Amino acid sequence: MNQKLKVLVRLDLECGEAQVAAQGHVTAQSIQALYVVMKRANHLRQGLQLVVDISHARVEPSALEQLRECSETHHLPRSIDPLQSECNVRVLAPADAGPRTSAGRVPAAAAA
Question: What CATH number does residue 62 fall under?
Fold first, then answer.
């Protein structure tokens, strides 16, 4: 299976949205490269909505949790963005990622 991470950025300035689509294997290590692309896209225009589409990627649970945390906090990790610019992120996760509660856990009904 392909371990490389492929990233494509689509920008729609009229709608104020940038889609960062990743394919391949998103790991705790490769997510750092994805963050760099997200940061660059976020700085193209103030108030841009970033849609991170990882629905066609193999995503490690720890990497998915990190992306969801960015979505909740509206910031990229401090190591990537020391100034902590506002970052409106929406994550499109793979279908097999499963639902999640606000505490980050899979609901008991979904786990059964």
Answer: 3.30.750.24
Give CA–CA dist 87/73, Å, rounded: 8
Tokens of 34: 């994805």
pTM for the model stands at 0.82
- Domain limits for position 68: 5-98
In a domain, 53, yes or no: yes
Residue 75 to residue 61: CA distance in whole angstroms: 19
Instruction: Give per-residue pLDDT as tens, 25-55.
Output: 999 999 999 999 999 999 999 999 999 999 9
Alpha-helix residue ranges (DSSP H) falling in the chain: 31-42, 61-73, 108-111
In a domain, 65, yes or no: yes
